């Protein structure tokens, strides 16, 4: 019985592993099941992709038969509030702790010098205390002062030499004794004892004088040492004022904008205070090494990179949108001018960092402001560039690493459009460079759904015309401020749009169908019964290559309506965007 249980358990194991792999797209199941174990396949698929894959299969139902993948984000990343009072308590506490670390570092000037050098410089402080010990030695050195006074003792010795005078007087004593004839003469031994006693008394007097001199000089030297110590304390310079450090034009701890900056570092390190502080110090150090302030003033124009990376419009939430079109490097001349040698590659990196810095200066770092971008990465015409152009791959990877390490939490959403067939495999190789939080902001779309994916985040009038929008360069009837309407044309059907007009009205309109391959026409239908319909534009087949945006106008001489007709005879639904405006006719 136990053997049967073991057998059934071993037989069910392969089935459980197959269920785990079910999140992998069908195109990958066949290859992975033959070449790799199921457990390895699961480990290779990041969590973000596990969530994206099911929706990928659903989204690509209309694109069956095409090899271009469609990868869209299943969960939308939502930015957190930058208002301190709205943060959860643990995040508020982490912010307060980080501010204390920054304040302490500013007081100690830790941002202006490398950490290693600071440690080396702190050691001499201990040594300086040791060097201060010679003050005690100075007391010992004051002893020579006594010796000098000892040298001045000959004066006392002169007194000793004067002692013979006493002896001479004593020698003269016999004269007195001669006068006193009746008294017996004093013995010579007593005279000698008296002389010796007097010499001892004089020697004691000299020693007392010496001791007095030593005490006086000792007191004077100790007083001098105390005065020197007080003088040294008075001479010590005052503590230096805290250093001022600015990052992206915002002084640290100056106002509430600094809190927004610090929150970026905390979120980039999952609110680990020490890690966020280490990252902040690293970024400040890198900015000094890279000479960011000087880079902002450097003239890097004329490189021809204006169509490679550029800002255009805003998304639905007001974030500036930055477009990256690396397919432009298919131009061999531009490629050689940018990546031909190491010097040119470094210049490209400096240009890219300068572009980022200038873009950041236009952000609003107030708690209610917009301080992040939406990045759009166009991968059109890029397979050969990424797979076979080593210089471009190295430069973009290096730029990516610099942006990842030194510009935390500046991307609200990153949309990859025109994703080629090979990109999922490439993404799996580079996704280790990104944090889970960063990967949650990624959105992928193949060529057939790029415009619709962009319209989820950016209104059509803000999207450049080359990406399916209505925004064009130069002067046109409509601008980026004129709102557009989105609509859908069903397969194998006609779709009409009506615009009512009054007498003496000039009606202008713009329209485009994503991918076109649709017939289009326009006519005016008067409101009066028995009126004649006027053909404004004869129906014609429009292809994607022939025309991107159709613009026209009609001046009405009587009340009625302008009718636009779109005839979609294909088996796919089509995305339609249009806008109108009216103005009085002359």
TrEMBL record:
Top-rank lineage group of the source organism: Eukaryota
Annotated GO CC locations: cytoplasm; membrane
Subcellular location: Cytoplasm; Membrane
CDD domains: SEC14
GO MF annotations in UniProt: lipid binding
Record keywords: Cell cycle, Cell division, Cytoplasm, Lipid-binding, Membrane, Transport
Composition skew (Basic and acidic residues), residue ranges: 1-14, 77-86, 114-183
Keyword Repeat in annotation: no
Boundaries of every CRAL-TRIO domain copy: 297-475
Keyword rRNA-binding part of the UniProt annotation: no
Region annotation (Disordered) ranges: 1-91, 114-196, 221-242
Pfam families (UniProt xref): CRAL_TRIO, CRAL_TRIO_N, GOLD_PATL1_C
Residues annotated as domain GOLD: 482-582
GO biological process, one term: cell division
Family: Belongs to the patellin family.
The protein's name in its UniProt record: Patellin-1
Species of the source: Capsicum baccatum
């Amino acid at each position: 019985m136990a053997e049967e249980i073991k057998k059934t358990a071993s037989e069910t194991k392969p089935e459980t592993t197959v269920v785990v792999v079910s999140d992998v797209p069908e195109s990958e199941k066949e290859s992975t099941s033959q070449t790799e174990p199921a457990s390895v396949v699961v480990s290779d698929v990041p969590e973000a992709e596990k969530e994206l894959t099911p929706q990928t299969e659903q989204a690509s139902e209309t694109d069956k038969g095409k090899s271009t993948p469609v990868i869209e984000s299943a969960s939308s990343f939502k930015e957190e509030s930058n208002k301190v009072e709205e943060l959860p308590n643990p995040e508020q506490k982490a912010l307060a702790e980080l501010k204390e670390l920054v304040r302490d570092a500013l007081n100690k000037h830790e941002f202006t010098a490398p950490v290693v050098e600071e440690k080396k410089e702190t050691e001499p402080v201990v040594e300086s205390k040791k060097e201060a010990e010679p003050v005690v030695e100075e007391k010992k050195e004051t002893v020579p002062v006594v010796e000098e006074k000892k040298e001045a003792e000959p004066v006392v010795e002169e007194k000793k030499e004067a002692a013979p005078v006493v002896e001479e007087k004593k020698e003269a004593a016999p004269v007195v004794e001669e006068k006193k004839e009746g008294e017996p003469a004093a013995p010579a031994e007593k005279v000698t004892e008296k002389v010796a006693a007097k010499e001892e008394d004089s020697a004691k007097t000299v020693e007392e004088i010496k001791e007095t001199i030593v005490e006086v000089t000792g007191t004077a030297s100790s007083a001098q040492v105390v005065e020197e110590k007080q003088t040294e304390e008075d001479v010590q310079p005052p503590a230096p004022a805290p250093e001022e450090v600015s990052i992206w034009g915002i002084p640290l701890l100056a106002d509430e904008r600094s809190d927004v900056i610090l929150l970026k570092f905390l979120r980039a390190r999952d609110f680990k205070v020490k890690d966020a502080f280490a990252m902040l110090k690293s970024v400040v150090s890198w900015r000094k090494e890279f000479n960011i302030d000087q880079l902002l003033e450097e003239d890097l124009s004329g490189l021809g990179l204006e169509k490679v990376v550029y800002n255009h419009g805003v998304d639905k939430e007001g974030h500036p949108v930055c477009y990256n079109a690396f397919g432009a490097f298919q131009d061999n001349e531009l490629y050689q001018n940018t990546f031909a040698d190491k010097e040119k590659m470094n210049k490209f990196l400096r240009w890219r960092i300068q572009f980022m810095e200038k873009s950041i200066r236009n952000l609003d770092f107030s708690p209610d402001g917009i301080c992040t971008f939406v990045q759009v990465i166009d991968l059109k015409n890029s397979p050969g560039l990424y797979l076979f152009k080593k210089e471009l791959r190295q430069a973009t990877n290096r730029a990516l690493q610099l942006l990842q390490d030194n510009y935390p939490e500046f991307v609200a959403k990153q949309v990859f459009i025109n994703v080629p067939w090979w990109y999922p495999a490439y993404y799996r190789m580079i996704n280790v460079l990104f944090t889970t939080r960063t990967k949650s902001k990624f959105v992928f779309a193949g060529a057939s759904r790029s415009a619709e994916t962009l319209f989820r985040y950016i209104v059509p009038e803000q999207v450049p015309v080359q990406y399916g929008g209505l925004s064009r360069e130069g002067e046109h009837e409509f601008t980026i401020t004129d709102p557009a309407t989105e609509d859908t044309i069903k397969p194998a059907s006609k779709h009409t749009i009506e615009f009512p007009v009054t007498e003496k009205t000039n009606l202008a309109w713009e329209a485009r169908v994503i991918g076109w391959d649709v017939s289009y026409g326009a006519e005016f239908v008067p409101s009066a019964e028995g009126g004649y319909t006027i053909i404004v534009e004869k129906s014609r087949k429009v292809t994607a290559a022939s025309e991107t945006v159709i613009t026209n106008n009609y001046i009405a001489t009587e009340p009625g309506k302008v009718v636009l007709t779109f005839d979609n005879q294909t088996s796919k639904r089509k995305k339609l965007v249009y806008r109108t405006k009216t103005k009085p006719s002359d």
